[in-house]
Amino acid sequence: MGKLGKKIGFIGTGQMGEAILKGLLTTELFEPDDIYVMDILDSRLQYLKENFGIAHLSSDRSTAYNYIVDNCDIVVLSIKPQVLKDVVECIKSCNWDKEKHTVISIIGGINTSFIEKYLPEIPVVRVMPNTPMLVNIGASGVAPGKNASKEHAKLVHGMFEALGVSYLVEEKYIDSITAISGCGPAYVYMMIEAMADGGVELGLPREMAQTLAAQTVMGGAKMILDTGEHPGKLKDKVCSPGGSTIAGVRALEQGAFRGTIMNAIEAGKVRMEEVGKKEESNK
């Protein structure tokens, strides 16, 4: 058994679910035999078996939910918002124990209160993780629901802190966290791709340009985290008077670089709120 001494079940294992699963195995918080998975795709289950050694697998919805609840202490809801209602309708009749179980929801836009209506006594903790957990450099927001105690919050916060950075917050902040760290990796990938494309245009081999761009972004991020300095101050240190960097900064400002990023963050939050309102209206 892993370091936590518990068993965990995943209902759904998309990209984010896989990132969490892999991170938990890498940090040895759980062993493969501690993990149970229900997914409707047999091909997905075969992938998890071959790549992570997971043996407790099922695609049979008529038996899998009970199998997971009966055997696991922690149940992770890692599914699309559109199918959540159908899933909670099925799992609400399982053998839940408020003293034993903790439910973790990583479903975008869905408040803990929605799940608590189907599992009224069970502790629910909402988490917004991100895919860099695949390499143990994740960033998460953790928000306990009304039935979750400090111990439940501490348990889940500790799990995700082992996979990177984790903040324990009020649930009202989760959509904002989603917009930054949940959606943010995509924006960073786009920046790296654009930097690499620029290097290729200037004659560099693609592999070299992409590695230089990715290493530069990683190094810049580490400088901020390690020094605690304001990004603007670090930027100024790179900009020599009349130099190439300040010329590039001007080009970015002309393209509304910072404003565009801020707009993207806001758009992500708005979409999460829209998803939540839509699912609430469909209940």
Automatic annotation (TrEMBL):
InterPro entries linked: 6-PGluconate_DH-like_C_sf (IPR008927), NAD(P)-bd_dom_sf (IPR036291), P5C_Rdtase_cat_N (IPR028939), P5CR-like_CS (IPR053790), P5CR_dimer (IPR029036), Pyrroline-COOH_reductase (IPR000304)
Enzyme Commission number, as recorded: 1.5.1.2
Short name of one Pfam family: P5CR_dimer
Keyword Ribonucleoprotein among UniProt keywords: no
Top-rank taxon: Bacteria
Residue intervals of the Pyrroline-5-carboxylate reductase dimerisation domain: 171-274
Biological or metabolic pathway of the protein: Amino-acid biosynthesis; L-proline biosynthesis; L-proline from L-glutamate 5-semialdehyde: step 1/1
GO cellular component term, pick one: cytoplasm
Amino-acid biosynthesis found in the keyword field: yes
One MF term in the entry's GO annotations: pyrroline-5-carboxylate reductase activity
Reaction catalysis annotation: L-proline + NAD(+) = (S)-1-pyrroline-5-carboxylate + NADH + 2 H(+); L-proline + NADP(+) = (S)-1-pyrroline-5-carboxylate + NADPH + 2 H(+)
Function noted in UniProt: Catalyzes the reduction of 1-pyrroline-5-carboxylate (PCA) to L-proline.
Entry similarity comment: Belongs to the pyrroline-5-carboxylate reductase family.
Protein name: Pyrroline-5-carboxylate reductase
